[in-house]
């Protein structure tokens, strides 16, 4: 795990998006899947001169991106990634979205097919705050970015860091970089990362 140096000019970006930006090389081709309001794509265009594209499910998100002059189309990670050619991008990004997909296994395979590398971030459901609230309250917790009731959340496939590592191994994917962050954005490492890290970042490629 390499030391993280915050990307220049990243004030206002989510912690995980700053970490993603730090991994992406200049003048790269980038596809951001579930790009939201386009904050990452805009940052990469301004600071790393990338050729960026995006897919976003919500019309409001697409409209926000287009208003910034970003090249974003409306689409669904589960259904539309198959339309992209193999190795069309240097990096394919999926941030805070994997747990909301219907078929995470297939989505991961599509990411590494389309991109030379895939960068994935997700909330860690093995985080100690989630475990503690479930243990003490006996109810599904509402913690940090998971601040919806169980019947409202889009998170249909929650996983822990260890779950994700096992899935990558099952799919034959190489983990080139792994970073686990706590609530303050501080890196967690070693055997306790799955307990004390609220969110995780992985950079993957095919063998």
Describe what you observe in this structure.
It is a single chain. The chain is of the alpha/beta class and 207 residues long. It has one domain: Vaccinia Virus protein VP39 (Rossmann fold, 3-Layer(aba) Sandwich), CATH 3.40.50. It is built from eight helices and eight strands; from the N terminus they run αβαβαβαβαβααββαβ. It has helices at residues 15-23, 39-48, 59-67, 77-80, 104-114, 128-137, 161-171, 193-196; strands spanning 29-33, 51-56, 72-74, 89-95, 115-123, 173-181, 187-188, 199-206. Strands 3-2-1-4-5-8-6-7 form an eight-stranded mixed beta sheet, sandwiched between helices. α2 (39-48) links the parallel β1 (29-33) and β2. The longest helix is centred in the middle third of the chain and has 11 residues, at 104-114. The two termini are 19 Å apart.
Pairing-aware structural class of the strands and helices?
Answer: alpha/beta
Instruction: State the helicity in percent bands.
Output: 25-40%
How do the strands of the widest beta sheet line up side by side? 3-2-1-4-5-8-6-7
Mean pLDDT: 89
Radius of gyration: 16 Å
Report the strand count. Answer: 8
Number of helical segments with 4 or more residues = 8
Provide the domain count.
Answer: 1
Strand content: 15-25%
CATH topology: Rossmann fold
Q: What is the assigned CATH homologous superfamily?
A: Vaccinia Virus protein VP39
Uncertain regions: pLDDT < 50 for 5+ in a row?
1-8
What summary fits the major beta sheet? 8 strands, mixed
CATH architecture: 3-Layer(aba) Sandwich
């Amino acid at each position: 795990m390499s030391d993280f140096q915050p990307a220049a000019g990243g004030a206002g970006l989510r912690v995980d998006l700053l970490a993603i930006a730090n991994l992406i090389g200049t003048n790269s081709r980038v596809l951001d899947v579930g790009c939201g309001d386009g904050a990452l794509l805009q940052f990469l265009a301004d600071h790393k001169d990338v050729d960026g594209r995006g897919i976003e499910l919500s019309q409001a998100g697409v409209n926000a991106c287009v208003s910034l002059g970003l090249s974003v189309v409306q689409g669904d990670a589960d259904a539309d990634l198959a339309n992209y050619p193999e190795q069309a991008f240097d990096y394919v990004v999926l941030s805070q979205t994997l747990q909301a997909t219907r078929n995470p296994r297939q989505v991961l395979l599509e990411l590494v097919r389309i991109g030379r590398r895939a960068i994935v971030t997700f909330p860690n459901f093995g985080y100690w705050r989630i475990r503690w609230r479930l243990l003490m309250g006996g109810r599904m917790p509402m913690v940090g970015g998971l601040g919806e009731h169980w019947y409202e959340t889009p998170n249909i496939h929650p996983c822990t860091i260890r779950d994700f590592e096992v899935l990558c191994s099952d799919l034959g994917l190489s983990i080139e970089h792994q970073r686990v962050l706590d609530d303050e954005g501080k890196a967690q490492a070693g055997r306790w990362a799955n307990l004390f890290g609220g969110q995780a970042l992985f950079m993957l490629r095919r063998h």
